[in-house]
Amino acid sequence: MILPVYIYGQPVLRKEAEDITPDYPNLKQLIENMFDTMDRADGCGLAAPQIGLPIRVVVIDLDIMSDDYPEYKGYRKAFINPHIIETNEETDTMDEGCLSLPGIHEPVKRPTKIRVQYLDADFQEHDEWVEGFEARCMQHEFDHLEGKMFIDHLSALRKQMIKGKLNNMLKGSVRCSYKVKTVK
Ligand code: NI
Questions:
Q1: Which among 32, 86, 141, 146 is annotated as catalytic?
Q2: Which of 47, 65, 94, 104 is 20 to 30 A from 152 via CA?
Q3: How far is the CA of 90 from the centre of ligand 1 (A)?
Q4: Where are the domains of the chain?
Q5: How far is the centre of ligand 1, averaged over its atoms, from the C-alpha of 125 (Å)?
Q6: Could you tell me the pTM of the whole model?
């Protein structure tokens, strides 16, 4: 089932999300709905707060990049209770966008490698270092679980430059091809 994507201004996007337990109601269905919603919006990741739930669940699809990055062929994963434990010193900068911030794409500087702990969709524990686009995407999505969005990483000048677009979102004026839920 495709759900509306919560847009900038929705308080849930600024909340710290909570860990869940394996008995969380209808979790399999929730994860399926998150994949459907992400696919419909052509996203490569979606965090539960973006569909209005302040819980630590994320889906990521890197398979859509596998024409350029064959190592990501078949990469469609759900992450439960993910936490970033360590990052390396080295950073790089890449343009990011977000389904909750339609029409905004800005360069964001992030560490190139991260150590993450999470449970997969079968509640198996993982503890691993990841790098490259996978690390970038995870950091973006896991930020959502801390109530953060990628625009928080921008300089004051760049924030100033997107202010008009953000204000339009707060007024409920959003142009995109998927179902959304604005604050007004
Ligand atoms: Ni996002």
A1: 141
A2: 65
A3: 22
A4: 5-181
A5: 24
A6: 0.97
C-alpha span between 116 and 111 (Å, rounded): 13
CATH of 5-181 among 3.20.20.70, 1.10.357.10, 2.60.120.10, 3.90.45.10: 3.90.45.10
- Residue 141 annotated in active site: yes
The rounded Å distance from CA 144 to ligand 1 centre is 7
Chain segment 33-52, per-residue pLDDT in tens:
999 999 999 999 999 999 99
From ligand 1's centre to the CA of 123, what distance in Å? 24
Alpha helix segments (H runs only) across the chain: 27-40, 132-145, 156-161, 163-170
Burial class (CB in 10 A: 0-12, 13-18, 19+), 67: exposed
